Amino acid sequence: MTHRLHDQLRRCFAIAIVVGLFGAASVSDGMAATEITLWTMRTVEAQMGNLRADVAAFEQQNPTIKVTIEAVPYNVVYPKLAAAIQAGTPPNLFNNIEAMVAFMHAKQTLEPIDDVIDGLGRDQFTKKYLDWVTAGGKTWALPDWALHQAVYYRKDLLAQKKLSVPKSWAELLDVAKALNNAKDGMHGMGVPLGREFVGQQTVGAVMYSAGAYVYDPVTRQYVFDKNKDKAVRALRFLVELYKSASPAASIDWSWGEYRTAFVKEKVAMTFEWGAVVGQAASENPALLDKIGVFPFPGPDASDYPPKANFGGAYFFTVSKAEPAKVEASKKLLRFLWAPDRLAKRANTRPVFAMPPVKAVFESAVYQNDLMVKRFSPELRMLYRDVMPYEQRHGLEAGLNPLAGLIESSYVFGDAVQNVILRNWTPERAVDWIDGQLQVMRAYFEK
Amino acid sequence: MRTGGTSPRRDRLGVLFLLPTLVFLVVLIAYPVAYNAYLSFQDYNYLLGVRRFVGLQHYDHFLHDPVFWRSLWNNLVWTLGGVGGQLLLGLAAALLLDGPGRGIAFARTLLLIPYVVPAIATAITWRWMFNDFYGVLSFLFAVAGILPAQTSPFASVDLAMPAAIGVGIWRGFPFAMIVYWAALQGIPEEEYEAARVDGAGWLQELWHITLPHLKHITLVLLVLRTLWMFNYFDLLYLLTRGGPAGATQHLPILVYITSFGLFRFGEAAAIAGLMAVTAGLIIVLYVKVHGPKEL
What we know:
CATH superfamily of the largest domain in chain A: Periplasmic binding protein-like II
CATH superfamily of chain B: MetI-like
Oligomer: heterodimer
Strand content of chain A: 5-15%
Number of domains of chain B: 1
Distance between the termini of chain B: 41 Å
CATH topology of chain B: MetI-like fold
Structural class of chain A: alpha/beta
CATH class of chain B: Mainly Alpha
Radius of gyration of chain A: 26 Å
Largest sheet of chain B: 2 strands, antiparallel
C-alpha cells in the first residue's frame, strides 16, 4: 500500500467519524425536540401577538417543545383542513369554532381532552360550551372564548325618541321603525343576511328566540320538522324587520359591512357579537358612550329575556398524533389556561370575547381592561342573561356532524334570501330547510 | 459519420428527454382528471370515509336538478358576458394605444395592472366601490338613475351578475389588449397606405384591413378566454359568494359548496365532469363555426 493511498484512507476514516458524530447528534436532537403545529382562526394581529408571546414563554419553559403557529382565515379553513386531514397532517392544536370541532370529530381526528379539563377544574367552565363539544361521554375541545350575539344599539337615539328597550318582537319592530330617519340616512335596524355564515347567524337568533330548535336539547331528537310553525313565524318576523328598517343592501352584508354601518352611524341597532365596540374605539370613539346592548327578544314580552339565544365560542382541539406530540399539545393547553393568560387572551378582543370560566371573568386581570371596565354592566348582563341560554344549530344534541354541515352549507342564509328576493313563502323556505337538513342527516346516518 | 436516422440509443435518449413532460402530464393532468371521473361514479361520504359505486346516479341527479341548471345558466352568462366585454374592451384599448411614444407605452403598462392585481384585492376594492353607503360607483349609479340611492348591485338578483361581469371584464381585458396589440404590429403598413391612396377612412381601414387580420387571433382569444372564464372561480366567489339567492352561483361555486360545504365529493366530481363536457361542447361549437384550420 503506498503512502498516498494510506493518507487517503485515513482522511476518509476521519470524515466518516465526523459525519457519524454529526448524524448521531442530529438524531439525538431530533429525539429530544417535539415539534407541534398550532393553527388559529384568529387572524387579528393583537390576538396573534398575544398567542405568539404566550407560546414563546411556553417554549422557554419547555425547550424540548417547538411550536409552529399558523393563522388560518375563515374563508379557507375547510379546504385547508380537509387537505391536511387527507394528508394525515392535521394541526396538533387548532384554535377554532364549534363547526370545526364537529367536522374534525366526524373525521375522527380528535383526541379527547377530559384529562386537561378535569385537571383545570371541570366545574369552572360554563357548562353550555362543554356540552357543545361533548359526544360519546367524552369532551373533544377546550373552550377558550365565550361569545354572544345580542342587539347592539344607540342609547342616545332611543332616549331622544323616548323609547324603551324592546322586550318582544312587536316592540323591536316598533322601535326599529321609529328609529328610521330618512333625512339622516339612518336605518332603525341592521339585519345582516350575507350568504356565508352571517345569514345563518341572524336567522339563528330569531329562530332560537321563537324556540325553533334543530334538535331538542332534552331528548336530543331531531325536532326541526316539528318546529316548522315556530320557524315560519320567526322567518316572517325577520323578513318584516328587514323590509321595515334595514338597508336593502344588508341582504349581502357580512360582519365588516354591518359593523361599519353601525360605527358610521347608518344603523341605530344591529345584530352583533360585540366587535363594534372595538371598531368604534378606533374609528369613532365618540360613539362608545352611546352604545348599549340588550338580549334579542322573543315573540312575547312576558318571556324576556328569552331562554334561547344564538351564540358561539372559540375552542382549542388536540389532534390524534404520536403520544409525545399529544402530550406536548396538552401541556401547552394547561400552560395557556393559567387564569391570567386566559383573561389576557380574552382582553385582546374586549367585549367580543369573554373568558368561559366564571372565576377568570371576575378576575382583576380581565375586569381591569379599560374597555371591559367601560362596558362592565353590559358584560355582566350578557354573562348572566344571554350566555347560559346560548344555542347553536345542531349542537343542541351535543357534538355531531350536522352542526358542522349546517355552518358550512349556507342553508339558513339561502332560505331567507330566497324569501326576500325570490318571493318564496316562509312556509316554502322552512320546508326547504327541513328537506336540506334531512338530506344532511341521512348523509352521515347511513 | 451518422447524420440522421434512429438507433436504440437515440430512441432511449429521446424517451428520457420526454420523461419529465410525461411525468408532469400524468401526475398533474391525467391522474386528477381520471380520479375525478372515478370519483363522480362514487357516493363518497367524506365525513364517514365511506364510498360506494353508484354509476351514473350523480349525473342523472344533476341533469334533473334546477339548481344545477340555474348554475349552468349563470355560468354561461358570466362567461359570454365576460369574454365579450374583455375582447371588445381589449380591442378598443389596443387600437387606442397602437402607436409609438413613451406616453403610449406607459399607458399600455398601466392598463396591465388589473391583470396582475390579486383577485382578493380586486374583489375587496370593487365591493367597497359598490358599497351601498360609501361606494363611489353605487353613488354614481344612483345619480345616473341606474340604481336607487344607497343600494349595492350585489344585493339585487338582477344586478349582481352584471356588476360581477363588469369586474370580470375589468380584470381580464388587459390580456386581450396585449394580444391584440401584438397582432396589430404584424399587419403590413403597405395595406393601410394603399387603402389611404384609394381614399379609405379610419372606419373603412378598420373594417376592411384591421379586423380581417385580427380574425385568427380573435378566435384563439375566444377559446382561451372562454375556457378561462368558464372555470374562473375565485373572483366571483370573493365578490358575491354566489348570492344573493343564488343569482351569481355558477358551476365552479356549486362545485366548491358541494365539496367543501356539504362534503359530497362524488357529486362535486360529477358537476366538474359536466362542466368539462360543457366546455368541450363550447370549443367544438367554436371550431364548427370557424373551421378547424382557424385554430
